[in-house]
Amino acid sequence: SLCSTEETKQVLRLSLTEFSLPKFYLLFGISKVKSAAVIAFRSSYRDRSFSPGSYERETFALTSLETVTEALLEIMEACMRDIPTCKWLDQWTELAQKFAFQYNPSLQPRALVVFGCISKRVSHGQIKQIIRILSKGLESCLKGPDNYNSQVLIEATVIALTKLQPLLNK
């Protein structure tokens, strides 16, 4: 129902085909399965063969998140061309920014990467906030080099700054 042009339908078909390939399973953190659908719809309540030891959760790399976000952005932009008053990207950007600038060891690094990938404009104030986050991550790393969350936060800020830098005024 979202697709009114053949061009948009083609983008969606190609994206669906691409996401169905085993190489994309790795990007979603499920490369050790034969079928993504089996993992996606398996419930430990209904299927007793599923136990914590039978499927180990893989780590989800921020670079994978970057690739997935860019693929989803491409799909969203294709659909938005056919919907004149669509505000999806603005809403997504607003949510990503909210979580990027709010301390949460689990969500903040991911939100920073997403914010960097989907933003179409950036202010100097937003860049300052990201640099402050980077600074806090570096301070935390200096206190204890084994702090995994700080390392992930540093990686996320670098990815975000790399994506946002071209949007700044010269």
From TrEMBL:
It comes from the Eukaryota. This is NF1 protein.
